[in-house]
Amino acid sequence: MRYRARVRGLSILFPVLVFACADGAGDGSSLSQASVPTTLSAGESAATGVGSSSGELASTSGAVTTTSEPGSTGSGSTTAVEGTGESTGSDPGGSTGAALPSKSCNYESTTYAAAPQELMVAKGSPKQLLFTVPGLPDPGLVSAATLRFVSYDSDHPGEEGVIVVNGGAPIDLPAELAWTNLDHETAVVITDRTVAGDNTIAFGAGSAEVGTFYRISKVALELEAAVAECPAPPDMPMGPAKAVQLDFNAATYGKRNNWVLRCDFGEGYAFTAKGDQGALDCGKLYDPDGTRKGTATFVFKDLVPATYEITIAARHSANRNPKGALFVVDGEAKRVDQTKGDAITVDTWGTKQLAGTIEVVLDSAMESESDSVTWVRLEPQ
């Protein structure tokens, strides 16, 4: 209802608010919904209907608007910034583009369930125990990272050994006199040292004059990271470990044209060459480029976690690579001397903890020399 008044010839309309009594009390102590305007002018608040005295913003550029479910006290609210397309609050991400909440996730090494790896070397040895932790998120999503593992007989404080994360600066391997001949669950903070994808954790020799001896197992990384889901632990084959062997016909060859696959000599063998050897190649694919370079890759699948002895059979000859044939077992490289004798000979590469799917590569791309292989065998110890 409006009343008209005249002031010095001007006609002015005054609004009159009609109050409705709550619960029929008629005391004017509360307002019904009928008292709240349905259309707000600039400066009025949707939450209160009484202007901007409550501190809420109502500008049309860069305004901050808070919405929540009717009757809520703030739970489930989302704050949107106009003009940016971004949002903050409790939305879990995805539908609104909000940042994901940080959660604690465990990333196990590929040999987490395998037997402990042992390092027993003299002071100054370059040998390392290598572990791979796959599937890590981008470092920008990681707010904290902790390396967890079990060490055995780490009992020389300050000189037991070192930890190298992704080729970075060495970290002293934690050790205490009380850990002599004991397993110890150990945690080392490595925040800002992770990388996206595969991470390499190496354990090396210490500075003790008596040399280094310890064992490492159950290597994993615990992260605080803004990720949608934590990874599921990798499925590992179960049951007793068994010996497995692949011969040269089962390998995949890089630069196959530089390889002769000879089938007319004992068990047969493959070797890199550059001369007139085409008549010996049972695959008839030999077409040398003069470099003798190539690779032979053996893929072993579904290995039960265990320590395996790796043996390699090959045709030895005086004209083989004088530096030794370079065999890379699950990322670890060692050379095998194939220059002594003139027969198919079995050499021991060494032992290594293996699990799941691994590759053994004869890398003949390093030098222009001849390397050979008949078969590769993994024997559980």
Explain how this protein is built.
This protein is mostly beta strands and 381 residues long. Among the domains are: 104-225, Jelly Rolls (Sandwich); 244-380, Sandwich (Jelly Rolls). Helix content is 0%, strand content 43%. The protein has no helices and 24 strands. The protein has strands at 2-7, 10-15, 64-67, 78-81, 87-89, 103-108, 117-121, 128-136, 142-152, 161-165, 171-172, 183-189, 197-205, 212-225, 244-247, 252-254, 259-262, 269-272, 295-315, 325-329, 332-336, 344-363, 372-373, 375-380. The strands form 6 sheets. Strands 15, 16, 19, 20, 21, 22 and 24 form a 7-stranded antiparallel sheet that branches. Strands 6, 7, 9, 12 and 14 form a 5-stranded antiparallel sheet that branches. It has a 4-stranded antiparallel sheet with strand order 8-13-10-11, with no helix packed on it. The termini are far apart. Residues 1-95 have low confidence and may be disordered.
Compile the SSE list and pairings.
Layout: E1 2-7, E2 10-15, E3 64-67, E4 78-81, E5 87-89, E6 103-108, E7 117-121, E8 128-136, E9 142-152, E10 161-165, E11 171-172, E12 183-189, E13 197-205, E14 212-225, E15 244-247, E16 252-254, E17 259-262, E18 269-272, E19 295-315, E20 325-329, E21 332-336, E22 344-363, E23 372-373, E24 375-380
Antiparallel strand pairs: 1-2, 3-4, 4-5, 6-14, 7-14, 8-13, 9-12, 9-14, 10-11, 10-13, 15-24, 16-19, 17-18, 18-23, 19-22, 19-24, 20-21, 20-22
